[in-house]
Amino acid sequence: MGSPRIVLTASNSEASEWHHSIWQQMMSATIPFKYSKKLIPPESLQNESWPDGRAKYVPNGLRMVETLLLREYDEADVVTCYLEYLDRFVGPETKVVAIHAHNPLGISYATDVYSKLAGQSLIPLNAHEFIRIVTHPAIQKYKPKIVVGGPGAWQLEKANRLDEFKIDYLIDGEIERVFSELFKRIIEGDPTLPRIVKFSKETQPTVEEIPVVRHRSTFGVVEITRGCGRGCQFCSPATKVGRSFPLEHIIASTEVNARQGATEIMFSSEDMFLYEQLPNFTPNLPALETMFRSVKAVPGVETLQTSHITMAPVVKDPSIIERLTPLLVPYSHVHHPDSTDPNKKCIDPIIGLETGSPRLFNTYMKGKGYPYKAHQWRDVVLKGMEILNRHNWFPFCTFIIGLPGETDEDTKQSLDLLSDLRDAKGTFVPTFFVPLEDTRMAAKKSAKLIEMTDLQWEFFFTCWKYNLEFWYGGQKAATKFSLGVPLYYKMIGKKLFGRGIKYPLWRFAGVPDRFMRRHLYLDFTGRKRNRAGMLPFEQEIVPGFETVRGLNMIDASVLHQPTRTHGSASAVGD
Ligand code: B12
Ligand code: SF4
After folding, report:
1. Do 222 and 326 fall into the same domain?
2. Are residues 95 and 155 in the same domain?
3. What is the pTM assigned to this prediction?
4. Which residues contact 340 (CB under 8 A, 6 or more apart)?
5. pLDDT tens digits along 217-236
6. What is the Å distance from ligand 2's center to 477 Cα?
7. What would the mean pLDDT of 297-310 be, rounded to a whole number?
């Protein structure tokens, strides 16, 4: 039997679903390859294959490509495998090797910046794994066309590495509608096809055009919505048409995953509360309840994992959290000692908090807080967090450092918010601004480590101090770093980033604040983290209140209501 015409693959770090850990995935985009063996268990990169060498699970986007190909080609012609089996499948008849890229160089939100903390020339594990694919001996020997696609494909263009990696085609955007024609041209080597093909809003498929995947995805990812509509300027899904998948589609995708061994389903969405939403971004609670119940009822499904949510709907109607909790928390695989659930379970949806500065919020992301206004964002976050925590939702919160035009005043406001969140149960991950392709900020400059201010360093390391305390307990965890941190500062940190990181690093390493209060903005002297959680947030946050007073209103044109579309993609993105 000859080699398959098309081989699909993804890097081991992006395909891994080791311990259902999204942490491990995110770490692989951040940790320098050089030290990765010490920090990431090597077995987490050993993904499982079927006896014939095909991959058991790969990222959902690649499964979609496979599904579209299987409409036109036979299973014998389309093989999805990991790096370990490339030499078994790539051969003389192979015309195309297609690679999925979620965050191939670690540039999304500058996740790779973390690897640079240990030296400017270090690359994250993800990049190393990606390079292993494109330089694989079988690919070099048989020279199939290399096609790269997926949400992070843009990074290879931005970093100008298409020639170095001998990438023939880079495909950026949703491809369901255009796929058939596109792949035909790739396989036939159509000389008129540009090397970089970008698909915009006009070619985004309706949900009817999106098939149910044929094989299992990493983490058992099942799409419930696509696109957002809140219009944040730095975000790529903001530019996508908002769509909800029909329940039958969701169940069918779940069944495929469960039949092929997935015991957990991860709901893929920019914001779970957009599923079948009602006007004005109002969550459709009955639809959400039915959907979660139906997915859990699919035979083989044991646990459920949330992806992204937004905070404003939580505050507007806290009963959503109350009612969804029994459908999600008992079925989570995540445990935490601070959970009040009888089995110490909790869920960790991802929430972009981004900033504590109302000015930056108003400039770049005012739709995120709708129906609340930018100056209410701090209160929305605190009240939302208190509600979530009370129901054992311990979110994974991201912040963006270095948004264009960020001043010391803005950073202080972010630090104030962080200080208010001292007792919150959750994870706080600072990321660095990167202008993503196809966003309204594409032409802006990235944040740079060497330009970080002392206050930004304080923000960065205070987040990580919180995380250490939350996940590993207070002083015990800090002691782990008490020797390493001064060494790091002396040998690497000071040389690379100057003295500004010194006191923030000391705080991270557990040095009491009373020795550093003159050097840092926040002062935690005598303020231990209260493991019981945040105090109830008393203030009522009334949508529209400011309108009455004629204060800063949201410009409705920044919002693009994604309607429920069982078919017609009538909603608009940006
Ligand atoms: C599930 C998910 C995760 C999961 C699982 C990832 C995995 N490995 O499977 C977790 C939580 C681990 C994760 C982590 C991260 N993620 Co993520 N993730 C998602 C999410 C919610 C769904 C992905 C999905 O399945 N989509 C549905 C599929 C069908 O879409 P797709 O993958 O884009 O595929 C389509 C096309 O891209 C194309 N395509 C895909 N592959 C290929 C391959 C070829 C050859 C071709 C031709 C085409 C093609 O065809 C598909 C059909 O149109 C998306 C948001 C979203 N709605 O897409 C964010 C998203 C992709 N993630 C994002 C980011 C930034 C990250 C992190 C960097 C976050 C962080 N700060 O650490 C990490 C990186 C992880 C890593 N290993 O490096 C961003 C990417 C932004 C960007 N444009 O670069 C998104 C868009 C979220 C957001 N709102 O910003 N993620
Ligand atoms: S709320 Fe903003 S950041 Fe989040 S997906 Fe929507 S547009 Fe993007």
Report:
1. no
2. yes
3. 0.93
4. 392
5. 999 999 999 999 898 999 98
6. 33
7. 97
Asked if pLDDT for residue 35 goes beyond 90, the answer is no
Q: What is the 102 CA–ligand 1 centroid distance (Å)? A: 5
**What pLDDT score does 311 carry?**
98
| pLDDT bracket for residue 573 (50, 70, 90) | very low
Is residue 84, in this structure, part of any structural domain at all? yes
pLDDT reported for residue 574: 27
Whether 370 maps to a domain, the answer reads: yes
One domain for residues 237 and 382: no
Distance from C-alpha of 77 to C-alpha of 144, rounded to nearest angstrom: 14
Q: Which domain holds residue 255?
A: 216-287+294-308
Q: Identify whether residues 281 and 169 lie together within a single domain.
A: no
What are the pLDDT digits (tens) for 542-567? 886 655 444 444 454 555 554 444 33
Collect contacts of 35-41 with beta carbons under 8 A, ≥24 apart.
35/118, 36/125, 36/128, 40/125
Place of tokens 């006191």: 503
CB under 6 Å to ligand 2: residues?
A: 228, 230-232, 235, 237-238, 270-271, 310, 352, 365, 368
- The rounded Å distance from CA 150 to ligand 1 centre is 7
Which atom of ligand 2 is least distant from the CA of 368? Answer: 1
Q: CATH number of the domain at 263, please.
A: 3.30.750.210
Residues 406 and 385 in one domain: yes
CA of 267 to the centre of ligand 1 (A): 12
- Residue keyed to tokens 């294959």: 49
Q: What is the pLDDT of residue 305?
A: 97
Residue to mutate, 224, 270, 397, 561, ligand 2, most ligand atoms under 8 Å from C-beta: 270
Q: How many structural domains compose the chain?
A: 3
Here the CATH number for the domain that contains residue 364 is: 3.30.750.200
388 shares a domain with 432: yes
Q: Are residues 109 and 170 in the same domain?
A: yes
Nearest CA to ligand 1 atom 19: 268
CB 294 within 8 A of CB 247: yes
Give the pairing of strands 145-149 and 396-401: unpaired
Q: Is the pLDDT of residue 457 over 80?
A: yes
- Distance of alpha carbon 187 from alpha carbon 238, whole angstroms: 32
How many angstroms separate the alpha carbon of residue 354 from the centre of ligand 2? 10
Structure tokens at 325: 């909790």
Residue-wise pLDDT for 334-366, tens only, equals: 999 999 999 999 999 999 999 999 999 999 999
Q: Is residue 567 part of a domain?
A: no
Looking at the CA of residue 169, tell me the nearest atom of ligand 1: 47
